[in-house]
Amino acid sequence: MQHNISDLIALFANTFETRYQTILVKGDDEPIYLPADEHHPMHRIVFAHGYFASALHEIAHWCIAGPARRLLEDFGYWYCPDGRSAVEQKAFEQVEVKPQALEWAFSVACGKRFNLSADNLSGEATDDSEFRVSVEKQVQYYLHHGFSERAEHFIAALCQFYGQPYPLREQQFNFQKVDVVSV
Fold it and tell me: Known InterPro entries for this protein (predicted)?
């Protein structure tokens, strides 16, 4: 199945641009969320290097952010770049559980393989098993209790576009085959 970034940009625009004045933008560098300002009338979700997974991940952060956070650059989140200590990595993983769980759901809705990202290529080595279990539990929670409104709308749009079964079901997730990658 072809996963073209221009399709994802158009799908996001068709689903959210008018209602939320938000667009998805292919970036050249690190991802960032930029709220509208005097030079840009639209909020911008900028994803890294044209990577499909980066776009899904940044959309997941946007789906979690409430109205006040969507007025702040990068939603006002704390971020410590690659090269984190074990303590910093654990703090990073705690705030990444929900976005990575949503990214996983978006990936399934696209019929695309999901890789859990530790995002700490040059940092201190840590045991990622607790992080993996936390993300798995969060996905199961969403499947049983529901996704947020924006996440659910995007999942429905992705499933329709990519011909995947909707609504998502636990059987579509392979909890034994989640790889944790450093980037």
Answer: EpmC
The token pair that represents 2 in the structure block: 């072809």
Is residue 179 predicted with pLDDT exceeding 80? no
Whether pTM > 0.90 for this model: the answer is yes
Q: What does DSSP assign to residue 45?
A: E
What residues contact residue 63 under an 8 Å CB cut-off, 6+ apart?
102, 148, 150, 151, 154
Write the single-letter amino acid at 141. Y
Please give the pLDDT value at position 126: 62
String of b and e for 112-144 (b: at least 16 CB within 10 Å)?
Answer: bebbbbbbbeebeebebeebbebbbebbeebbe
d(CA 48, CA 36): 19
- How far apart are alpha carbons 21 and 57 in whole angstroms? 19
20-109-17 Cα angle (round to 5): 15
